[in-house]
């Protein structure tokens, strides 16, 4: 027989529960026994595996038995050739002899015999019969002596009859033996539970269960709460945490007030939050984690912050929303350690390491898990899974199934969040327990408040507190538990939380003015939340956490951040709608909360009305980020709020101060835009160099223009313009050039205007003015702006533009010109000052014509092959198209010789390659070093697919939409449609993204905006996902026969009804189409361009909308067709 592998298990430390899965199964001899197939079945050890089965086990001696042929065991052995004995161990069969040997185990310091692990050994042949006979006699003598000692009974071996006294003693002996075996079994089970498991066993254990029973549920655990069972007071320890801190060094008002109680003894300088601190936040993307990270940077000056977050639930929509939060952190905390670690703490707690052996300091030695101390933090704040709602997504009801980690059609399972909570807490404690006490960071972890009914989540948070006590007793790890209330509300909330869902419903139903509608809305808001909640504003919780992070207790401490009263959610809904004033809640008596106030001088300071108002304002800014303020309507009640278009208008109506641009803790959103931007909805917006010329352009200079061609030369002292324009008096096309007011070009231009002609331009000089040359120059600058023509451009000068401009000023006219031009202007064409060719009138008219495509009927085209034969193709009819933006694709340059560009779309570009080509576009070297702002943006974009495209613990029924950046453009010229709202929304998103990162590559921001919009459109329009899409084979000839791939659909009701997509409209080809080579033929596409210009020019309101990225090849063919129609000389357009 081959020797079986001995199962070996490492010690697992305190807090790990492990039940071996290779325990014995028992043969009971019944007809329906499930072990009669002769195989050993796994079974977990428990107190039930005692009694008659264990009576047959021989723990001390080797036993050789020869069962009769008629016995069940013998029949089983003879039938299968090998069998399982009573204790579940496989026995070698040699004739009728069976040899079973239990293994012995040494653990700890002493010698411990473990009967739970058996291994099969090679049977020793040639055993002496005398030895077997002697062992049998020895056992019989032991039993005989035991019976005599027990007393009065005896056994009559002749008649095989046992007297009653002897039978009684025999029963007593069996009971005693069974009790002893139970005690041994309990001790062994306890040892096995404390045993550390190998990394492979841990990985297997942490995988979620797959159940096919729809009614399967985990029963709610019932454990005693800390307030019901008094907490054992642990002995304090004296730790050398350094000298006490100074009061002025502490961060936060609560910490500074609490410092005076003991002159800073409980606030050591080692744990003061400052620029030297390094903070690790688990659950950094939840509301508390986000506000804490922003507060640490803006209030405490903490520079280095590391974040860990599981990003549950793993749905595409939820991941895209969380990416906006990561971008908010990256752009406001420049030294944020990236990437945000995504280890699925507790469920998949390992970090994907690079190739090669991992470093010892990166992983825990026993389990192989991520060592959370690798970032060398001074503070750890554990917020992962602090609330039950973090694993629930109410927007995914239709996608729930039994394989989904965030829910099913019947219930929301507890297993995932419970295991994540417990194992992540242990992972933290193990990381801390493995270092020296003087090197341990401060640990603060979130627990759950005492308000509300018992639940599995509350019990698990209680287990976290118990685990912290255990690690203090065994490793001396000091920690602070912060019990958060069951309703922490505020900006950056999550779906599934009461206040967030209530405000979302209110914003979606905003505009009801009658009392009956408002009453129905208030009733619907609280349908799913009828009970009372302990409500605390998130900023108040963050203030308490900052104080707790700097306070060092002598033993594990428990703090309570609950409010002094609870409120019904119906009253909260009324406050949101503004129909009633705030009413008093139900007072609660919480001694722990009172002690917390004494210890940290913390208590909630934000009123319910103020907190809810700020929350509603954030939701309005989130729902309508670029909407202009809407006229407020008032109802019957004086204080009633019915309709508003922006968060600042809502704040102003309620008398709440609006947020400043640099107060990220107030608005908790993207960077503010200039006041003159068409996308601005803030009251305290940013000033701009264009503020003084906005009214001049909009109300005077551009009132008679249909099309506008414009450029800018700003940020330096301009002496001349490189580009020339063609000026026409008919007013169809107006040319404008924006230049600095104090530049040499403007000074020279106004000097050429003689004084006797100034009155023609409404510039009147008084005799006193003529005596002062500086005053005359000032009058000319004020009166001649927008009235001087230079090289075909109408000069518009702006103040303070000779030095380098901020990013929001440098790109506002290029990306966001809508608010500067008259409402009569239809299109605007921006041309970069470094464009190699000056555009003429024909160029402008041609590009504008390409923003609209009439319907094309089904047509047939021919292609001549190399063999001289013509092949006939049938192209499907194309719907009408309208482009909200027209741009050119990015060129791929040869980095060794940037003057030579490669063929368009030579291969699929990566983000890094595209960034390098964009740098060449703006005049930088291909191999030059990136600026820090650009590097952060590029690295953030490169990590997005690893977040959104991962399918870990994702529903198998959910459509798989991959995030992919592929809309690479050149923005040396851009055509804007100024009449469509969809065009304004795209311009605002593009401009906001570029301002948020603050670099000069607006093309990179455009690619991200388009990739994000594409996922949103595909989900909203229910398009085929990426599992189905590759099956649709697109013929390679379509790229040469049509330009449909250059029209990128946007999310709109027109596109939803038309069901047109750039890649799907031409996938179905005629049956007679045969495979051909990749030879290009321009005649078919040229014929399409001719039909385009001869088609119907009318555009309906239901026309599908697109973003068009027009290639140079298609542009050349279209220009030929346009020139033939208008009788114009055709020249190759420059790109």
TrEMBL record:
The reply to whether Membrane figures as a keyword in the UniProt entry is yes
Membrane-traversing stretches: 130-151
Q: Where is the composition biased (Basic and acidic residues)?
A: 1-11
The domain of life is: Eukaryota
Q: Report if keyword Repeat is assigned.
A: no
> Which InterPro entries does this UniProt record tie to the protein?
NAD(P)-bd_dom_sf
Which UniProt key words apply to this protein? Membrane, Transmembrane, Transmembrane helix
Question: Quick one: where's region Disordered?
Answer: 1-42, 66-113
State the name under which the record lists this protein.
Uncharacterized protein
Query: What is the source species?
Result: Grammatophora oceanica
């Amino acid at each position: 027989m081959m020797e079986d592998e001995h199962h070996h298990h490492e010690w697992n430390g305190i807090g790990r529960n492990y039940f071996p899965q290779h325990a014995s199964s028992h043969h009971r001899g019944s007809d329906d026994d499930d072990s009669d197939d002769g195989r050993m079945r796994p079974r977990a050890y428990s107190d039930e595996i005692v009694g008659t089965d264990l009576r047959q086990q021989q723990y001390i001696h080797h036993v050789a038995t020869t069962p009769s042929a008629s016995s069940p065991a013998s029949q089983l052995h003879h039938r299968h050739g090998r069998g399982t004995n009573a204790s579940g161990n496989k026995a070698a069969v040699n004739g009728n002899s069976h040899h079973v040997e239990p293994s012995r185990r040494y653990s700890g310091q002493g010698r411990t015999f473990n009967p739970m692990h058996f291994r099969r050994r090679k049977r020793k042949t040639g055993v002496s019969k005398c030895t077997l006979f002697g062992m049998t006699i020895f056992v019989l003598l032991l039993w005989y002596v035991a019976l005599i000692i027990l007393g009065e009974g005896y056994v009559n071996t002749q008649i095989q009859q046992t007297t009653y006294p002897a039978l009684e003693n025999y029963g007593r002996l069996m009971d005693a033996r069974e009790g002893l075996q139970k005690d041994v079994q309990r001790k062994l089970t306890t040892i096995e539970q404390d045993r550390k498991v190998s990394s492979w066993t841990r990985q297997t254990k942490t995988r979620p269960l797959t159940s096919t029973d729809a009614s399967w549920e985990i029963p709610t655990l019932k454990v005693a709460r800390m307030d019901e069972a008094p907490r054992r007071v642990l002995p304090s320890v004296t730790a050398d945490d350094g000298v006490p801190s100074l009061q002025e060094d502490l961060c936060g008002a609560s910490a500074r007030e609490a410092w005076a109680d003991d002159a800073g003894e409980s606030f050591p300088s080692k744990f003061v939050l400052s620029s030297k601190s390094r903070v690790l936040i688990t659950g950094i993307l939840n509301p508390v984690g986000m506000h804490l990270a922003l507060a640490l940077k803006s209030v405490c000056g903490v520079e280095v912050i590391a974040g860990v977050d599981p990003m549950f639930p793993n749905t595409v929509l939820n991941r895209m929303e969380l990416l906006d939060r990561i971008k908010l952190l990256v752009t406001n905390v420049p030294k944020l350690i990236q990437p945000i670690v995504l280890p699925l703490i507790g469920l998949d707690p390992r970090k994907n390491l690079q190739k090669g052996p991992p470093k010892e300091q990166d992983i825990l030695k026993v389990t192989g898990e991520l060592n959370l101390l690798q970032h060398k933090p001074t503070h750890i704040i554990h917020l992962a899974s602090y609330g039950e709602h973090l694993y629930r997504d109410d927007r995914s009801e239709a996608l729930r199934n039994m394989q989904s980690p965030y829910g099913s059609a019947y219930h929301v399972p507890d297993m995932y969040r419970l295991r994540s909570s417990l194992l992540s807490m242990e992972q933290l404690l193990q990381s801390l327990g493995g270092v020296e006490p003087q090197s341990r960071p401060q640990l603060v972890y979130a627990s759950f408040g005492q308000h509300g009914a018992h639940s599995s989540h509350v019990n698990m948070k209680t287990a976290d507190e118990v685990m912290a006590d255990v690690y203090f007793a065994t490793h001396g790890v000091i920690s602070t538990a912060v019990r958060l209330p069951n309703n922490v509300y505020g900006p950056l909330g999550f779906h599934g939380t009461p206040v967030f869902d209530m405000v979302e419903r209110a914003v979606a139903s905003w505009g009801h003015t009658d009392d009956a509608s408002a009453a129905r809305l208030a009733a619907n808001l609280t349908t799913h939340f009828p009970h009372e909640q302990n409500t605390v504003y998130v900023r108040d919780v963050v203030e308490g956490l900052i104080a707790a992070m700097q306070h060092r207790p002598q033993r594990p401490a428990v703090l309570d951040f609950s409010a002094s009263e609870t409120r019904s959610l119906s009253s909260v809904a009324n406050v949101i709608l503004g129909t009633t004033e705030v009413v008093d809640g139900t007072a609660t008596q919480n001694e722990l909360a009172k002690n917390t106030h004494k210890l940290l001088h913390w208590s909630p300071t934000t009123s319910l009305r103020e907190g809810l108002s700020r929350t509603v304002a954030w939701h309005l800014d989130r729902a309508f980020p670029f909407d202009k303020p809407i006229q407020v309507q008032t109802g019957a009640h004086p204080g009633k709020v019915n309709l508003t278009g922006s968060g600042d208008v809502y704040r102003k109506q309620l008398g709440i101060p609006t947020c400043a641009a640099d107060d990220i803790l107030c608005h908790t959103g993207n960077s503010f835009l200039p006041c003159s931007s068409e996308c601005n909805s803030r009251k305290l917006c940013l000033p701009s160099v264009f503020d003084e010329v906005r009214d001049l352009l909009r109300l005077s200079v551009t009132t008679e223009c249909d099309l506008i061609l414009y450029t800018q030369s700003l940020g330096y002292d301009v002496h001349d313009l490189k580009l020339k324009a063609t000026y026409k008096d008919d007013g169809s096309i107006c040319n404008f050039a924006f230049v600095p007011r104090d530049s040499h070009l403007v000074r020279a231009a106004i000097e050429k205007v003689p004084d006797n002609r100034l009155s023609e331009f409404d510039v009147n000089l008084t005799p006193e003015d003529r005596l002062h040359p500086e005053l005359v120059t000032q009058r000319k600058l004020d009166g001649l702006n927008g009235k001087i023509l230079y090289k075909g451009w109408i000069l518009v000068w702006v103040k303070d533009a000779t030095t380098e401009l901020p990013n929001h000023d440098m790109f506002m006219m290029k990306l966001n010109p809508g608010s500067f031009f008259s409402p009569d202007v239809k299109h605007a064409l921006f041309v970069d000052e470094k464009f190699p060719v000056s555009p003429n009138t024909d160029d402008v008219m041609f590009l504008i014509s390409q923003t609209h495509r009439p319907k094309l009927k089904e047509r047939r085209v021919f292609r001549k092959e190399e063999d001289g034969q013509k092949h006939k193709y049938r192209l499907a009819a194309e719907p009408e198209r309208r482009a909200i933006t027209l741009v050119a694709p990015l060129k791929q340059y040869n980095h060794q010789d940037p003057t030579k560009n490669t063929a368009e779309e030579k291969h699929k570009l990566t983000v890094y390659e595209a960034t390098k080509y964009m740098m060449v576009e703006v005049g930088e070297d291909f191999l030059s070093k990136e600026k820090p702002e650009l590097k952060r943006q590029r690295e953030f974009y490169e990590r997005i697919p690893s977040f959104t495209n991962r399918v870990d613990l994702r529903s198998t029924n959910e459509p798989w939409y991959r995030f992919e950046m592929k809309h690479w453009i050149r923005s040396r010229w851009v055509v804007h449609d100024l009449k469509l709202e969809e065009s304004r929304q795209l311009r605002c998103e593009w401009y906001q993204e570029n301002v948020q990162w603050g670099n000069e590559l607006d093309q990179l921001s455009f690619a991200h905006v388009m990739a994000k919009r594409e996922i949103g459109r595909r989900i909203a329009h229910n398009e085929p996902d990426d599992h189905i899409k590759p099956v649709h084979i697109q013929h390679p000839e379509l790229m040469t026969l049509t330009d449909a791939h250059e029209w990128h659909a946007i999310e709109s009701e027109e596109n939803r009804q038309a069901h047109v997509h750039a890649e799907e409209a031409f996938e179905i080809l005629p049956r007679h189409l045969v495979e051909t080579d990749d030879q290009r033929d321009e005649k078919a596409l040229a014929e399409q361009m001719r039909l385009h210009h001869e088609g119907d020019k009318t555009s309906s309101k239901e026309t599908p909308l697109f973003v068009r990225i027009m290639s140079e090849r298609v542009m050349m063919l279209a220009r030929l067709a346009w020139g033939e129609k208008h009788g114009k000389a055709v020249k190759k357009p420059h790109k």
